[in-house]
Write a structure and sequence with these properties.
alpha+beta; 11 strands; 486 residues
Length: 486
C-alpha cells in the first residue's frame, strides 16, 4: 500500500502514538481514478509539499490516502459530543482519516486529514463518503475565512473520486484534504472522560498543552491553565465570527476545537439581511445555533469541557467546580471585549473615548436590526459615508430616519474611513454565488468556483469588474437553506 512520497514531507504519528486508545489504525478507501479538482498551491508550499508533485498521479494517490510514505500511520480519531444538546459518547471520524502531522515552514505541527475517505469503525451506518459540492463548499468558505483573518482549518485539495455518492440524488464523490493545527475537540475530552480512564484524560490534556498552549505547563494549575487558554481562544474566535456575520450552523461540542480554529464547514453561511435570529441550517429547526446564539452556545460548550476536566483541575470535586466556574466566568467579558473592540474598528473609531463611542457602538446594532439591511454592504458603504457621501448607505434603508439620527452621532466622532476599509470586507462568499459555483462545478465547469475563490481570497480591496461579487443576493434568491452533506 505504501510507496515513496512525491515530496520530502514526513508524516509524524504523534497523536496515534501518544493517544492510541483514541486512534484506530485505518486505511482510506481505494480511489482507482482520482482527478484533481483544486489544489491550494500556496498552502502546499507552506507545508513543504511540491505542488507539481501533488498534481502527479502519485500525488493524487497521496491526497486520497491510497499510497503513503513508509512509516505513515493513518488513523480514525475517536471523540464524543453533544449534538444539538444530546450527548453521544462515541462519535469519531466516521468518514475521515488522520494521515498524521507535518511541520510547516515555521516549524508548527499541522494535521493532514482526509474527509470523505470511506467508512471507518465510527461510521454508524453512514457510507463514509463525501460529495463534490460540500467539499468544494468547505474549500471556498475556509479559504475565505483565512483571508478574513479568522482562525480556521484550511483546505489543501479536493480530489474527485469518480465514484457516486447517494444522498437525495446520485452525486459525484470527492475527498477533501484538510489542514489543521490539530483535530482536538471538546468532544475529544468528552470521549476520554467517558471511558473512565483518568490517565487517558490526563495524557490527552498534556498532549493539548504541548501542542497548543505550552505556557499552561508552567501555571500553578496546568489543567486549569489549559481550560482558560481555550476560553480565551474561543472568546476571540466567536467574536470574529459575529463581526463578519458568519453563522457556523452546527456548533456541537465535537465541532469546537481546542486550538480555537473554525472547523467543519457543513451548513454554514454568511448572514445577509441583518437579523439576530438568522438560521440557515436545514436541521436547526429550533434555532439553537442561530447567529445571535453563537456566543451563548460557545459558553455552554466550554462548560461541558469544564465538566470533563474536573478530575484534573483538583482532586476535591467541590474545589474543582469552584475553580472551573470562576475561570468560565471570564468568557463573557472576554467575548464582549473582543466584540466591542472589533465593532469599534468596523466603525472607524480606534482613537476613542469609551463614554462617547459606547452609545454609537450599541446603537449600530439597533439600526441594523430595524433596517434588516445587508450586513456586509452596510459596513462597507459606511466607509463611503465617512468620506462624506452618505447616500449609498442611506439608500439601503426603506426608512433612513433611524440611521440618520445614529449617523449624526457617529460622524461626530470623526471616523477613519481608511481604517474601516481594512476591516470591513467588500467580498465574502455570498450564498447565491457559492451555490452558483457549486452547481457549475458539479456539472463539470470549475470556472465559477475558481473565480469565486480568487475573489474571496483578497476580501478587502475593491477591484473593478467584480461588482456582482460585492452585491447582495437578488430578491429571487431564497429562502436559503444549507445542508451538512453527510
Amino acid at each position: 500500500m505504501s510507496t515513496a512520497t512525491p515530496s520530502t514531507v514526513t508524516f509524524d504519528g504523534r497523536f496515534a502514538r501518544e493517544l492510541a486508545e483514541m486512534a484506530i489504525p485505518w486505511q482510506a478507501a481505494e480511489v482507482p481514478e482520482p482527478r484533481l479538482l483544486v489544489l491550494n498551491e500556496p498552502l502546499a508550499a507552506e507545508l513543504g509539499f511540491d505542488p507539481a508533485a501533488l498534481r502527479s498521479p502519485e500525488g493524487l494517490h497521496l491526497l486520497t490516502g491510497n499510497r503513503l510514505p513508509e512509516g505513515t500511520t493513518p488513523v480514525a480519531q475517536a471523540y464524543a459530543g453533544h449534538q444539538f444538546g444530546w450527548f453521544t459518547p462515541r462519535l469519531g471520524d466516521g468518514r475521515a482519516v488522520l494521515l498524521g502531522e507535518v511541520a510547516d515552514a515555521a516549524g508548527r505541527l499541522r494535521d493532514i486529514h482526509l474527509k470523505g475517505s470511506g467508512r471507518t469503525p465510527f461510521a454508524r451506518g453512514g457510507d463514509g463518503l463525501a460529495a463534490v459540492g460540500p467539499m468544494l463548499r468547505e474549500y471556498i468558505v475556509s479559504e475565505a475565512m483565512h483571508a478574513l483573518g479568522i482562525p480556521t482549518t484550511r483546505s489543501l485539495a479536493v480530489v474527485a473520486t469518480g465514484q457516486p455518492v447517494y444522498r437525495e440524488t446520485e452525486l459525484p464523490g470527492a475527498v477533501l484534504a484538510r489542514v489543521a493545527s490539530s483535530h482536538l475537540r471538546v468532544g475529544s475530552f468528552q470521549y476520554a472522560r467517558a471511558t473512565g480512564d483518568v490517565d487517558l484524560l490526563r495524557r490527552l490534556a498534556d498532549h493539548a498543552i504541548t501542542r497548543h498552549y505550552p505556557a499552561a505547563a508552567d501555571a500553578d494549575n496546568p489543567y486549569l491553565g489549559l481550560f482558560e487558554a481555550v476560553i480565551t481562544a474561543q472568546a476571540s474566535l466567536v467574536a470574529k465570527w459575529m463581526l463578519v456575520g458568519f453563522i457556523h450552523g452546527v456548533m456541537n461540542t465535537d465541532n469546537m476545537t481546542i486550538s480555537g480554529e473554525t472547523i467543519d464547514y457543513g451548513p454554514c453561511a454568511f448572514m445577509e439581511g441583518f437579523d439576530p435570529a438568522t438560521v440557515y441550517s436545514s436541521i436547526d429547526e429550533g434555532g439553537r445555533y442561530a447567529y445571535a446564539n453563537q456566543p451563548v452556545v460557545a459558553e455552554w460548550n466550554l462548560a461541558r469541557l469544564a465538566e470533563v476536566l474536573l478530575p484534573l483541575i483538583h482532586e476535591d470535586q467541590e474545589q474543582a467546580v469552584a475553580l472551573a466556574m470562576e475561570s468560565l466566568g471570564a468568557f463573557r467579558p472576554q467575548y464582549s471585549a473582543n466584540w466591542s473592540a472589533g465593532m469599534v474598528a468596523k466603525l472607524g473609531l480606534q482613537a476613542r473615548d469609551d463614554a462617547e463611542s459606547s452609545p454609537v457602538v450599541d446603537g449600530v446594532v439597533t439600526v441594523l436590526q430595524q433596517g434588516r439591511v445587508d450586513y456586509t454592504t452596510f459596513f462597507r458603504t459606511l466607509g463611503v459615508a465617512a468620506r462624506g457621501t452618505a447616500e449609498p448607505v442611506r439608500s439601503l434603508f426603506s426608512d433612513p430616519a433611524g440611521f440618520d439620527a445614529w449617523a449624526e452621532s457617529w460622524l461626530a466622532l470623526d471616523p477613519d474611513a481608511a481604517s474601516m476599509d481594512r476591516v470591513n470586507p467588500v467580498y465574502i462568499p455570498r450564498n447565491h454565488l457559492v451555490e452558483e459555483a457549486l452547481s457549475s462545478a458539479v456539472g463539470g465547469d470549475l470556472g465559477p468556483f475558481e473565480r469565486l475563490v480568487e475573489v474571496v481570497s483578497a476580501p478587502y480591496g475593491e477591484r473593478p469588474g467584480l461588482e456582482r461579487y460585492a452585491a447582495a443576493a437578488p430578491g429571487s434568491f431564497g429562502p436559503y437553506r444549507t445542508f451538512c452533506g453527510t
